[in-house]
């Protein structure tokens, strides 16, 4: 391997150890991972779950777009739901992709060689 390629691989190894943070291995046998959300207490967790369920009810009932009358507080805290989505958004992983795209720019002179060496064709 060329020295430049070895350096790029070392950079990718360092970046992956720093940037792949959203998913954590949970069960190696089934290749399962966990993603973490942060809440202050059980009450906030309950609020998150209730708001997600309300959002699903409204999404299922396009025409009526109403929650059942039996639910006391019918408002949906969209900010809370979006806050959870932001916690799960893999920004570090996008940083990794950006760094890889800098290391291996599209249209580089070795692009075809890199692709072929990474994905050898069966004989």
Structural description of this entry:
The model has no long low-confidence stretch (mean pLDDT 79). The chain is 55% helix and 7% strand. Helix 2 packs across helix 3. With 123 residues, the protein is mainly alpha-helical. The protein has 5 helices and 2 strands; from the N terminus they run αββαααα. A two-stranded antiparallel sheet has the order 1-2. It has 2 domains: 1-22 and 90-104; 36-88.
What tags apply to this protein structure?
123 residues, two-stranded antiparallel sheet, 2 domains, elongated, mainly alpha, 5 helices
Topology, please?
Elements: H1 3-19, E1 23-27, E2 32-35, H2 42-60, H3 78-88, H4 91-103, H5 111-118
Brief overview:
With 123 residues, the protein is mostly helical. It has helices at residues 3-19, 42-60, 78-88, 91-103, 111-118, and strands at 23-27, 32-35.
Which range does the strand content fall in? 5-15%
Task: Describe the strand arrangement of the main beta sheet, using strand numbers.
Answer: 1-2
In helices, the fraction of residues equals 55-70%
How would a crystallographer describe the biggest sheet? 2 strands, antiparallel
Mean pLDDT equals 79
What is the number of beta strands? 2
